[in-house]
Automatic annotation (TrEMBL):
InterPro entries: Bact_Lucif_Oxidored, LLM_Atu2307-like, Luciferase-like_dom, Luciferase-like_sf. Residues 8-300 form the Luciferase-like domain. The keyword Oxidoreductase applies. This is LLM class flavin-dependent oxidoreductase. PANTHER family: BLR5498 PROTEIN, LUCIFERASE-LIKE MONOOXYGENASE. It comes from Hymenobacter fodinae.
Length: 338
């Protein structure tokens, strides 16, 4: 099982001095370098177009990280493909693959944050149709140097070459999903590895959806080895569970209470948080031993997972605490799981 980290390049921290954008990016690159040094498998950068995040140009951050790392795989988490041009997305990540000497991947999705749609002139009424068409084109470009294609939302391609080509024979493309059954079936029918974002509730409740994915993939002729499942979870590791809970909760509550207010909901309570950190809850917050045990429990409940990525940005923790958590993930959590 691969262990990694996803980041949204948070522009602020819950305590300590305010950071400039340049300082926040510099610290993020330090964290990616540390993740590589302690033997983590993958680091992902999201895509948002909001004031609290600095990840609108994902491939640029990953290319900077590629120059400072040696082994760790570098991926998006996720690329909002619905609001992007698949030709340009492929070119950016193929270039990243060359810069990183074959370590680039991408996770593509429809986007749970919708600010990219009006920003780039797309209609939310076309939410799924945009993604379906653009995913088809992206996979065609990945598999063919010259593409003949036509669709509704982009000018046709009539055999133009798409360059550069990546170092890897086939650039890995994962499908990032939330809780929509059709998305799980689509990933299976295409034989794409699946990255499931579970940020709340009980993780084992996603088993029927993952079974849909595996059954669709089997019916489409793909082997079990091709149908990989990854888990993207909110999480944080400290020396003790009590320390992890106390450090993670304030920023977590602030972030999710703010999102709830935007959508007309109620603020997060400590009781809700503690329920999510329990044995079946989605949050991977605790000591290295407790978190490793919980990951293995989740893997068994979901029928086997091949990748777990921790999202720690939601708690707006200071850089040094994040660095310490990365150390624990690499030196204690990952070895326990492996």
């Amino acid at each position: 099982m691969q262990i990694g980290i996803d980041s949204f390049a948070a522009a602020r921290q819950s305590n300590g001095p305010a950071l400039s954008g340049a300082e926040a990016i510099s610290q993020l690159l330090d964290r990616i370098e540390r993740a590589d040094q302690v033997g983590l498998d993958v680091f992902g950068i999201g895509e948002h177009h909001r004031v609290e995040y600095l990840d609108s140009a994902t491939a640029v951050i990953l290319a900077a990280a590629a120059a400072r790392t040696k082994q760790i795989r570098l991926t998006s988490a996720v690329t909002v493909l619905s609001a992007a041009d698949p030709v340009r997305v492929f070119q950016e990540f193929a270039t990243l693959d060359l810069v990183s000497q074959g370590r680039a991947e991408m996770v593509v999705g429809r986007g749970s944050s919708i600010e990219a749609f009006p920003l780039f002139g797309f209609d939310l009424d076309d939410y799924d149709a945009l993604f379906t068409e653009k995913l088809e084109l992206l996979l065609a470009i990945r598999d063919q140097e010259r593409v003949h294609w036509h669709g509704k939302f982009r000018p046709a391609l009539t055999g133009q070459g798409i360059y550069p080509r990546p170092m890897q024979a086939q650039l890995p493309v994962w499908l990032g999903v939330g809780g929509t059954p059709q998305s799980f079936v689509r990933a299976g029918m295409l034989g794409l590895p699946l990255m499931v974002a579970i940020i709340g509730g009980d993780t084992h409740r996603f088993r029927p959806l993952i079974d849909l994915y595996r059954n669709a993939g089997k019916q489409a002729g793909y082997s079990p080895e091709q149908l990989q499942v990854g888990l993207h979870s909110l999480g944080y590791v400290a020396e003790t569970t009590e320390q992890a809970l106390e450090e993670f909760y304030p920023g977590y509550a602030q972030t999710f209470s703010s999102r709830a207010r935007e959508r007309g909901g109620a603020p997060v309570t400590r009781g809700q948080f503690m329920a999510q950190t329990g044995p079946l809850g989605a949050l991977l917050v605790g000591s290295p031993e407790e978190v490793a045990t919980k990951i293995l429990r989740h893997s068994e409940a979901l029928g086997g997972i091949s990748r777990v990525t921790f999202q720690m940005d939601v708690a707006t923790l200071p850089h040094q605490r994040l660095m310490a958590a990365i150390d624990l993930l690499g030196t204690r959590v990952a070895p326990l799981i492996r």
